[in-house]
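TA notes, week 10

Several of you asked for a full example with nothing omitted. So below is the full record: structure tokens for the whole chain, then the designed sequence directly under it. When grading your own attempts, check the secondary structure regions first.
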């Protein structure tokens, strides 16, 4: 589906939950019939083969587009262009984009890519080819002799399905149709015995002009409103695209349809009497795309002239297919060209209108509504026939067309003596474009083009030298010039053929929207690729490849000289009719079966792609093994609520011990954290799937991740990244086990995996993000906050606010690696490593009520983590028990507990992992208080190389407001009335606590110049006092404070109160054991206990304070510095006072990377591991750093 929503509007029904295609995880390993492509030929084949009772699969390269999804503006249309350019290796744009452009030297092709093929962006015209076209000897005799049946039987089936009708007589008068009548009259003047009415006609259109609650196949359709956007994509549903008829008919009869699947080539499996179709899904972009296979008894190509020819050519190269040497030949542009009557007398309305801007009575009408048909002029041969049609450009092409025609192209004034001043006024006022009629024309070229594989890109392009010099284009130009004279306009020839673009390229180029040929019909493989029934010849013989057909525009051996969709459909109906006769099928053409809406009404689903690698142990050898698979469920709500949390799997397994090529997964079954049936208190992730090899063998993959807490230091992270597998012979677990092994996921792949998470079938961006966030939390828990692409912290003030898409961090190769730890008192810690270089290791410790995200904030240009990684530091960002990422932030604990258990565990893990003897640390606020307590408990002796202490230290001095709260024991009061935690959120509470303490807090605690209207900011200010100068925060950071702030337990606030009252760190029981009677200048000299404790702080330390800090007074850093210097005079201590900054804005400020972070670096670099190593004595000196 496209990127915009498909909700109903005043112009269309609600198609938002309607979808014909199925998730790729539902694909089977083998089908009776596989149809490649879903244009007119492919859709006919899918419908008729399904009606014949065959098990049908349709593979379409493009997306499924619904009314309401299509681009209506230039910018949105540009995003949907894919372009193949001769000599250029890479495709411009995604291969699933809607507008598929192929640029050769002389011919450019524009074709539709999506479910419904060209019908999505064509002009809906249903005109028959001139009967004389089929008298050409290039057609096989069998077809020429069957033209009567083709017209009576097959054409009737097409008409019954596509329901073409002309623009109603009683509808709004169209200016362009009136202009076409004038042009027809003027052209007829020069033709003997011909009147304008003889050549002017309303064209039959695949358009619905009357509202129907359900059409003949059960799809609701509104009436056409004439917006003119048919060729950009119909956003109302009135256009009878193939997903309004043939395709839902196929679905109703059991066909399975898959989109965003590109078939690369096919191979004949002689041993199993079937075809192997090699394809790649274009669903995710984070991992490389690997080929998958599916088997089918019969294959029908309906991918269009370029697509079908390309697949057969690639099958010759990669699959050893033997086809006719004429493949690619007899390509025709169908004589397509475009010319303009610019700035004529009559108003035209030349371009479509966005639905939101459409005004009643002022619609331009369908893309084409009438034709000047010059194919039956008496005495003229069929090759001289041509048609002119009134073309309306879609709104997304309005501006480019207007600029090109009005200002870049110099037209020929066909009435130089008339209306000169009026023409100038219209031109210079910009109204000349509104009086412009576009002539879309088809005629007959010589079909001398060749489709070839471009050496650079490996994709098919057109070689057709001098096609623009063929006589038919000159004739079209003359007729259009005559028509323009009748409209008293300026004649502008096709710019690609004659004008500006042609001059720049020095070629008379042709743009075709009706590419035909490449797999032309013929009597044998010597002169064509397929026979009269679409069956592919085996080489240059009359023999046929078994069960292989082409049924689209590629089979035309010549031009048709008219819009080809009706002829393609009729020929496709004939091919399938003959196919059914050959195989003894009975196609039930009547009655129409309304589609069961339960089969097409969808709910939001989710998919993600995962890669794991490891080894398989066979009886005699150990072989590398890897899988790349996508887990997919089409109902995410059911998935999350289901106790098994089951989903489908598709993808590949690579193991040379099983196959020389990638094995394709089918019947894949996945369970996420389901309760184990065999293990107590254990959850499992189940991976079960059938593997199919190109050699025709099947294996059963049976894998499980056992998620169980095995020790106090392990919570399952290793479990969720390790898969134990058994490989069985055959297609189920009853077969013999032939290999066992384990696969693991790399952290780089895990990050890619999170990027592939996609919610599909959601109708709005808000819905997509909300489901993605909910799934991410369930899937990855706290890891989602670190690696995930969304911020998922709830906002209490607007519970319906969508999760915010986060900025990817600029980390280079230093991708985060997370480690979960559990303390001895059963609290969870999370260490996230960013290995930017060999400096450090550097441990970062946050305060209370926040998390490690304060160092990794994505709402500023460069956060502290990014800055340190850039400076080559090995950074370890710690979430300790205070982190709002854990429920422990609401539990009751003290700084004594954190000092005893959290920091020793984290420090030891870092040192054991890095092999270093000690580390550096930067602590902030309460994290610093708890860390200094840990130091003074003696648990970190000899393990800390240097400290940067932000805002706090061993000696504390609070702001006046916080000192008041401590003095009157506000935290103890909260504890006494039953409040155990406080938060930056109000959680919707209307109780008296909120009203009394938070109602007027902003006015009471902030200066007027610092006041804001954020309730989150106000509550943060009450709990901690103002933590920033507002001028230092950008708007996005201030608006997303809820993402970084959460709960703080009252017990730790009570501990802070006791510390503030004493002016130094003390125990929660108010015991003065950390700095006995210390904390003031001179105390360390008088007290032996104090001296002993201060030895634990004999570490290089920088104390930092913001001058405007209203939480902890800058006196904190001053007192801590003095006490440390007095106790350890030979140690390096220093103080950094930061003007114009307060507290957390030091790390969250929009300019911190320029104004603050560089201030830390001289101190950090002085004690960085690399610097210390450089200063170490040689081994001869035998001196230890310790």
């Amino acid at each position: 589906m496209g990127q915009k929503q498909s909700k109903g509007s005043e112009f269309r029904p609600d198609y938002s939950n309607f979808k014909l295609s199925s998730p790729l995880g539902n694909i089977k390993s083998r089908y009776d019939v596989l149809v490649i492509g879903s244009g007119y030929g492919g859709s006919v084949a899918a419908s008729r083969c399904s009606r014949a009772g065959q098990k049908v699969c349709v593979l379409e390269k493009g997306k499924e587009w619904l009314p309401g999804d299509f681009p209506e503006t230039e910018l949105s249309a540009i995003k949907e262009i894919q372009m193949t350019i001769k000599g250029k290796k890479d495709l411009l744009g995604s291969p699933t984009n809607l507008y598929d452009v192929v640029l050769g030297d002389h011919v450019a092709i524009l074709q539709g890519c999506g479910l419904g093929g060209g019908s999505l962006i064509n002009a809906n015209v249903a005109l028959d080819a001139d009967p004389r076209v089929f008298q050409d000897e290039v057609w096989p005799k069998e077809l020429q002799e069957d033209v009567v049946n083709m017209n009576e039987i097959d054409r009737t089936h097409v008409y019954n399905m596509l329901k073409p009708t002309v623009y109603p007589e009683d509808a709004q008068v169209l200016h362009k149709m009136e202009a076409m009548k004038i042009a027809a009259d003027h052209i007829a003047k020069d033709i003997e015995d011909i009147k304008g009415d003889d050549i002017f006609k309303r064209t039959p259109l695949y358009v619905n002009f009357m509202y129907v609650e359900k059409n003949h196949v059960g799809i609701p359709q509104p009436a056409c409103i004439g917006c003119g956007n048919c060729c950009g994509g119909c956003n109302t549903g009135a256009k009878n695209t193939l997903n309004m008829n043939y395709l839902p008919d196929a679905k109703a009869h059991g066909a399975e349809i898959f989109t965003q699947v590109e078939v690369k080539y096919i191979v004949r499996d002689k041993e199993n009497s079937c075809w192997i179709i090699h394809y790649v899904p274009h669903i995710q972009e984070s991992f490389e795309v690997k080929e998958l296979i599916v088997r089918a008894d019969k294959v029908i190509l309906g991918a269009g002239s370029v697509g079908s020819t390309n697949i057969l050519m690639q099958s010759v190269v990669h699959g050893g297919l033997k086809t006719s040497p004429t493949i690619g030949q007899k390509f025709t542009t169908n004589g397509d060209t475009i010319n303009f009557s610019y700035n004529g007398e009559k108003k035209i309305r030349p371009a479509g209108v966005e639905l939101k801007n459409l005004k009643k009575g002022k619609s331009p009408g369908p893309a084409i509504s009438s034709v000047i048909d010059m194919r039956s002029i008496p005495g003229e041969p069929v090759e001289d026939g041509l048609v002119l049609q009134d073309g309306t450009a879609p709104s997304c092409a309005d501006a480019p067309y207007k600029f090109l025609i009005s200002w870049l192209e110099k037209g020929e004034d066909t009435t130089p003596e008339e209306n000169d001043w009026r023409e100038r006024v219209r031109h210079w006022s910009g109204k000349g474009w509104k009086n412009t009629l576009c002539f879309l024309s088809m005629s007959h070229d010589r079909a001398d083009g060749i489709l070839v594989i471009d050496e650079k890109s490996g994709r098919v392009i057109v070689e057709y030298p001098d096609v623009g010099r063929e006589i038919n284009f000159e004739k079209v130009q003359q007729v259009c010039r005559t028509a323009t004279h009748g409209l008293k306009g300026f004649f502008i020839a096709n710019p690609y053929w004659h004008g500006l673009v042609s001059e720049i390229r020095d070629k008379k180029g042709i743009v075709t929207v009706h590419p035909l040929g490449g797999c032309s019909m013929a009597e044998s493989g010597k002169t064509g690729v397929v026979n009269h029934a679409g069956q592919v010849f085996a080489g240059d013989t009359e023999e046929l490849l078994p069960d292989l057909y082409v049924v689209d525009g590629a089979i035309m051996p010549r031009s048709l000289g008219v819009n080809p969709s009706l002829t393609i459909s009729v020929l496709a109906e004939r091919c399938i009719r003959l196919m059914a006769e050959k195989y003894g099928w009975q196609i039930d053409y009547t009655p129409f079966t309304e589609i069961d809406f339960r089969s097409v009404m969808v709910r939001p689903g989710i998919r993600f792609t995962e890669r794991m690698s490891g080894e398989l142990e066979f009886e005699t050898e150990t072989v590398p093994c890897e899988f790349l698979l996508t887990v997919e469920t089409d109902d995410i709500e059911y998935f999350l609520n289901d106790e098994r949390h089951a989903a489908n799997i598709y993808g590949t397994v690579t193991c040379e011990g099983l196959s020389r090529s990638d094995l394709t997964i089918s019947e894949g079954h996945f369970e996420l954290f389901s309760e184990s049936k065999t293990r107590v208190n254990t959850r499992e992730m189940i991976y079960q799937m059938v593997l199919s090899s190109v050699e025709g063998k099947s294996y059963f993959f049976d894998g499980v991740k056992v998620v169980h807490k095995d020790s106090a230091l392990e919570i399952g992270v290793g479990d969720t990244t390790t898969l134990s597998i058994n490989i069985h012979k055959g297609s189920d677990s009853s077969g013999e086990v032939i290999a066992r092994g384990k696969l693991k996921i790399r952290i780089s792949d895990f990050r890619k995996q999170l990027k592939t998470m996609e919610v599909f079938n959601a109708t709005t961006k808000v819905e997509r993000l909300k489901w993605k966030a909910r799934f991410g939390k369930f899937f990855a828990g706290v890891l989602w906050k670190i690696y995930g692409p969304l911020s998922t912290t709830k906002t209490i003030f607007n519970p319906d606010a969508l999760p915010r898409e986060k900025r990817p961090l600029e980390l280079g190769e230093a991708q985060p690696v997370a480690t979960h730890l559990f303390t001895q008192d059963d609290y969870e810690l999370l260490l996230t490593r960013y290995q930017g270089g060999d400096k450090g290791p550097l441990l970062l410790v946050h305060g209370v009520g926040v998390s490690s995200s304060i160092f990794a904030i994505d709402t500023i240009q460069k956060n502290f983590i990014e800055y340190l990684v850039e400076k080559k530091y090995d950074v370890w960002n710690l979430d300790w028990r205070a982190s709002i990422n854990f429920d422990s932030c609401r539990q009751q604990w003290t700084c004594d507990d954190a000092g005893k258990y959290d920091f020793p565990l984290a420090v030891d893990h870092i040192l054991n992992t890095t092999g270093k003897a000690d580390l550096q640390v930067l602590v902030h606020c309460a994290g610093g208080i708890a860390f200094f307590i840990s130091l003074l408990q003696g648990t970190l002796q000899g393990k800390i190389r240097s400290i940067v202490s932000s805002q706090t230290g061993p000696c504390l001095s609070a702001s006046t407001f916080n000192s008041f709260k401590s003095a009157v024991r506000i935290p103890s009061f909260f504890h006494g009335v039953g409040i155990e935690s406080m938060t930056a959120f109000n959680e919707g509470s209307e109780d008296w606590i909120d009203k009394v303490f938070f109602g007027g807090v902003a006015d009471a605690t902030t200066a007027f110049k610092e006041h804001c209207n954020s309730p989150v900011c106000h509550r943060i200010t009450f709990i901690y006092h103002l933590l920033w100068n507002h001028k230092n925060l950008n708007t996005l950071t201030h608006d997303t404070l809820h993402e970084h702030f959460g709960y703080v337990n009252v017990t730790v606030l009570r501990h802070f109160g006791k510390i503030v009252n004493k002016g130094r760190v003390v125990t929660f029981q108010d015991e003065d054991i950390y700095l006995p009677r210390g904390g003031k200048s001179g105390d360390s000299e008088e007290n032996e206990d104090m001296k002993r404790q201060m030895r634990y702080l004999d570490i290089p330390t920088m104390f930092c304070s913001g001058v405007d800090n209203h939480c902890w007074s800058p006196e904190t850093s001053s007192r801590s510095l003095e006490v440390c210097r007095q106790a350890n005079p030979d140690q390096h201590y220093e103080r950094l006072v930061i003007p114009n900054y307060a507290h957390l804005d030091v790390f969250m400020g929009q300019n911190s990377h320029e104004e603050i972070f560089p201030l830390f670096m001289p101190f950090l670099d002085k004690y960085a591991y690399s610097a210390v190593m450089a200063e170490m004595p040689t081994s001869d000196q035998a001196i230890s750093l310790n």
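The chain has a mean pLDDT of 87. Use that as a sanity check on your answer.
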